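Entry 14. Two folds queued back to back today. First construct below, sequence then structure tokens.
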Amino acid sequence: MSIEDRAKATGKNIEGKAQEALGNVTGDPEDKAEGKAKQAESEVRHGVEDVKDSVKKKLD
């Protein structure tokens, strides 16, 4: 597991939530959509790290 990769994914999730909230406040659907996309990207990154952890445990 890469702590750095997980931290980046968490940062991307926070960034996405903030952008989505900004879109809600300003009524900008583009900001809302981009924010949700960043959150989805974060979930994928966390999933990749989970798979890496699982493979590493099986190899050890």
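Second construct, same run, same settings:
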Amino acid sequence: MGLVRILLPLPRAAARLAPGRGGPLLGAALSHCVTPSWAGLRSPSAARRLAWADEAVAVYRATADTDGLGRALALRAHALLLSGRHEEAHAATAAVPDQESPALTAFLGDVRAQALAAMGRVEEAVPVAHACVEAYRALSAPDRRDRALGSLPGALRTYGMLLAAVGRGEESVAVYEECAALLAAMSLRELAHVELVRPRVLAELVGGLRASGRHSDALGVGPEAREALRGAVAWTAPETVLPLRVRLLVDLSRCHLATGDPVEARACAVEAVSEARRPLAASALPSALACLADVLGELGEGDKEAGIRRELAAPAADFTADQT
């Protein structure tokens, strides 16, 4: 995929010189660039992805390739979602012509559900996400091109997240557990297509188990979740992984506290604060500090607890206290 990005000038030149043959070639190359990256490759920025998608749509509109145009329009909707333009993304999913590809239809359902949720229409998003899951379940083995468009684990993750958001916690945990089981059975090659799904699912499963009061079960998933947030995925998507790691550590700390292990709870909380002091995870610092303060209070370390609470009460720009 990285090589295709580098060589884009070649199909662009071919499209100029011989539009009949070069146009579809350029459209395919651009669509390839927009689809999610394999593990080990940094994803392009949302702006770059959207620019490629817009170009692909324009290229395909000048050809007779209706399937290519439908795919480009679907990828554009996803690029709008990634760009935070949620209302436009939702509208864009409706603008895609009916597809013969069940994989593309399922992919559009996932984009639509996430866009609705981001617009605050979570209740409306839940049945859309459920229908998307069922669409992926009904798929036969997708071809290589369709495998990059999404997957049943990805759709399950969206559905589980939305169920949690509407207060259906037990159902959410069951969906996350099903998803985790599917991911555990995948080969390394298959996992390469869902590189960010696994760490998200495992971390969110820990949070769901904790919210359900299943603290020991959450701690049982903890080591696998921590492992999933290391390695190549941490390098390729630090803006996603670092806040997720802080959230996981906070959940594990509170589970250790609930099961009577304040020493281990402190270790997790200290690590969470340390991770949250990194710029890409700064938004998670308040929750990490609150967790550490609670643990220090349980340990009877009043002076240190008071210091953390003073930092927590300060403006975000003043979060400069030393790690406890």
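Quick look at the second one. The CA atoms of residues 206 and 250 lie 10 Å apart. The mean pLDDT is 87.
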